[in-house]
Specification:
This protein is an all-alpha fold. It has one domain (about 1-35, about 65-200). The protein has six helices and no strands. The termini are far apart.
Length: about 200
């Protein structure tokens, strides 16, 4: 029994180490993806597109940016649909938004899972460490008090490790989730502008 407890305690620390490496890898991958996806496109680009849609009567304008970003891809896709005279523009743009959403939220469930469960994994390690400490107390008696206290101190490190992993992971997950939400809201705004442009063009 004691051997399994010791093995479990060691496994918990190995799991926390693996979780921290995995979380760091996902964080860096998502950070690079968001930077690449947004490029240098900012609010001025969105304002340019909206102004052009509101003022133009025909699809005879092009965006100045050549950066491959989420916004520019979406705009170019919408312009192609308009220039080809495709029906169901609203549905096509909604499908494009869903496609971008899948890419934006990719691997975020990993961060969410680690952030929610790392404290419990650390707590499990602490429980196993306390079991080991009390077993040592029962075996060694009062003469082993120093050994028992060291065991409890080590056990508490598991909880600290779990919190050390969970807190930055939750912050990273919230950051990327918020960024993805803002991007998707901007795409919804662009979709509405393209839909209004098509309606005005049809009426005209």
């Amino acid at each position: 029994m004691q051997e399994y407890v010791e093995f479990g305690e060691q496994f918990i620390f190995l799991a926390m180490g693996f979780a921290s490496i995995l979380a760091l890898a996902v964080f860096l991958e998502r950070l690079l993806y968001f930077r690449k996806s947004l490029g240098k496109v900012n609010d001025s680009f969105l304002s340019e597109v909206r102004t052009s849609l509101q003022e133009a009567s025909e699809v005879n304008w092009k965006t100045e940016t050549s950066v491959d970003s989420i916004y520019s891809r979406f705009v170019q896709f919408a312009l192609r649909q308009l220039s080809l005279g495709r029906k169901g523009l609203d549905e096509s743009l909604e499908g494009q938004i869903l496609s971008e959403k899948l890419e934006l939220e990719k691997r975020l469930p990993i961060l969410n899972t680690l952030g929610n469960n790392a404290p419990f994994i650390g707590l499990l390690g602490t429980v196993l460490g306390v079991i080991k400490a009390f077993y040592g107390l029962g075996t060694l008696g009062s003469s082993g008090a120093e050994v028992v206290m060291r065991s409890i101190s080590t056990a508490l490190l598991a909880t600290a490790a779990g919190l050390a992993v969970a807190i930055p992971v939750v912050m990273a997950n919230n950051y990327f989730s918020r960024k993805a939400k803002v991007i998707l809201q901007n795409l919804e705004i662009l979709k509405t502008e393209f839909h209004s442009f098509l309606l005005n063009k049809t009426k005209g």
